[in-house]
């Protein structure tokens, strides 16, 4: 009320409020304020002013958080162009801008463009950072993910091994970045059919998580689920079953009853019951999934049809015939 409509003090206040909303998880409110912040700064400052570019970076990050990757990408292309015009070629901000843009390229399926940027980012990081810097390892991991997305799994494996080595030299063994890198490496081993190597890593990750982190840590659920999948791939279904029961219990304790992660955990557990020919247990879980989905999704949603087919397939396995209508009793009240 006391400042002109385009005064920079308003932009600062709007940005501060946006940060507060973001920290509370209210990203839509943060988005609107960040859009206003950028507009106000662009009215008063030159387009390539550092404060304008900073506002663009913040807005792009919120777009990405909300899954609006094309909007983020447009801003990030502008940001990179601005930095290339105003900064030295080896400036760290150029590396960060390339890395952010590469993530958005990957998110919209433009993997080859992401690959080119990430290779350039890694080259730059190696030029400007000390050999053991974790930024190098992070860039390696990003590039490895894109290698995997383009089917270059051997190249991905080599980079993930190198990234893990860098992180293990720089960080304590229980650091979450090391555990995430170990998990990513295990995924690549599995993709290459090296399930025993994946198993060893995933067992180590879960042991450290259980020793060093609280029982409701979000990555503990992921670590247990990953290990259960590998047990199943190796035919160790009883061990997979034990873990999947624990995953479902943990998932229910930290999420609302109808949360998608709960549905996923129930489906995974039902599949393992089926692998063990425990069809009654699988049927009960799959019927519950149908009811949950019917309460949260439109009646013609593909996920409901898939869940009903799972029920019908379980009836078939039990020798009850193959009519999908066998699952008609699983309706929401």
Q: Mean pLDDT, rounded to whole units?
A: 91
Q: Report the radius of gyration as a whole number of Å.
A: 24 Å
**H/I helix tally:** 15
Shape: globular
Largest sheet: none
List the helices and strands in order.
HHHHHHHHHHHHHHH
Structural class: mainly alpha
Q: Total number of β-strand segments?
A: 0
Residue share in helix: over 70%
End-to-end Cα distance, whole Å, is: 53 Å
* Poorly predicted regions: 322-329
Strand content: under 5%
Features:
333 residues, mainly alpha, globular
Could you please describe the fold and organization of this structure?
The chain is mainly alpha-helical. The protein is 76% helix and 0% strand. The N and C termini lie far apart (53 Å).
State the gist of this model:
The chain has 333 residues and is an all-alpha fold. 76% of the residues lie in helices and 0% in strands.
Structural topology:
Blueprint: H1 8-23, H2 27-44, H3 50-65, H4 69-86, H5 92-107, H6 111-128, H7 134-149, H8 153-170, H9 176-191, H10 195-212, H11 218-233, H12 237-254, H13 260-275, H14 279-296, H15 302-317
Helix pairs in contact: 1-2, 2-3, 3-4, 4-5, 5-6, 6-7, 7-8, 8-9, 9-10, 10-11, 11-12, 12-13, 13-14, 14-15
């Amino acid at each position: 009320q006391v400042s002109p409509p385009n005064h920079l003090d308003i932009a600062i206040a709007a940005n501060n409020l946006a940060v507060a909303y973001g920290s509370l998880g209210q990203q839509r409110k943060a988005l609107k304020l960040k859009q206003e912040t950028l507009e106000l700064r662009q009215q008063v400052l030159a387009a390539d002013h550092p404060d304008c570019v900073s506002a663009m970076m913040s807005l792009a990050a919120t777009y990405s958080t909300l899954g609006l990757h094309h909007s983020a990408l447009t801003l990030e292309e502008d940001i990179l162009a601005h930095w290339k015009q105003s900064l030295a070629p080896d400036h760290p901000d150029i590396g960060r801008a390339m890395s952010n843009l590469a993530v958005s390229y990957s998110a919209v399926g433009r993997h080859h463009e992401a690959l080119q940027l990430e290779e350039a980012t890694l080259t730059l990081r190696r030029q400007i950072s000390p050999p053991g810097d974790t930024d190098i390892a992070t860039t390696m991991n990003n590039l490895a993910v894109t290698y995997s997305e383009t089917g270059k799994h051997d190249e991905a494996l080599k980079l993930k091994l190198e990234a893990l080595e860098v992180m293990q030299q720089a960080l304590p063994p229980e650091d979450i970045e090391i555990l995430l890198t170990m998990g990513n490496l295990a995924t690549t081993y599995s993709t290459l059919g090296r399930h025993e190597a994946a198993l060893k890593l995933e067992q180590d990750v879960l042991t450290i998580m259980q020793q060093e982190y609280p029982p409701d840590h979000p990555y503990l659920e992921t670590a247990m689920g990953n290990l259960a999948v590998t047990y199943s791939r190796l035919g160790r279904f009883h061990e997979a079953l034990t873990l999947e029961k624990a995953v479902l219990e943990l998932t229910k304790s930290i999420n609302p009853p109808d949360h998608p992660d709960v549905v996923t955990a129930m489906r995974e557990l039902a599949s393992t019951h089926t692998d063990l020919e425990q069809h009654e247990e699988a049927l009960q879980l799959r019927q519950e999934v149908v009811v949950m989905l019917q309460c949260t999704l439109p009646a013609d949603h593909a996920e409901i049809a898939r869940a009903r087919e799972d029920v019908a397939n379980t009836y078939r396995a039990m020798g009850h015939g193959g009519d999908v209508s066998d699952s008609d009793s699983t309706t929401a009240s």
